[in-house]
Amino acid sequence: MPVTIVIVDTEERIHEYLPEIDELVSEALVTSEQVQVRHRTTDKHKTQPVTS
Predict the structure, then answer these.
(1) CB 49 within 8 A of CB 39
(2) Which of 3, 36, 38, 42 has the greatest number of beta carbons closer than 10 A?
(3) How buried is residue 36: exposed, middle or buried, by Cβ count under 10 Å (0-12/13-18/19+)?
(4) Are 51 and 39 in contact (CB under 8 A)?
(5) pTM of the entire predicted model
(6) What is the DSSP string of 4-36?
(7) Would you say 31 and 21 are in contact if contact means Cβ atoms under 8 Å apart?
(8) How far lies 3's CA from each of 13, 14, 22, 28, 29, in Å?
(9) For residue range 33-42, what is the model confidence (pLDDT) as tens digits?
(10) Cβ pair 39, 48 in contact under 8 A
(11) What are 1-51's pLDDT values in tens digits?
């Protein structure tokens, strides 16, 4: 059964974590995508981008 794990972090931190994934999984498809993360505030009508 396929399993999908999503990790959202900075590009640098993802690259640091990749060797650990290699040790944990013998067969896998790893994809890396640039995304725009939006954070919904408690006010249902406003959204704002997450900044780092």
Answers:
(1) yes
(2) 38
(3) exposed
(4) no
(5) 0.52
(6) -----S-HHHHHHHHHHHHHH-SS---------
(7) no
(8) 22, 19, 16, 10, 10
(9) 888 877 766 6
(10) yes
(11) 788 888 888 889 989 988 998 898 888 888 888 888 777 666 665 655 666
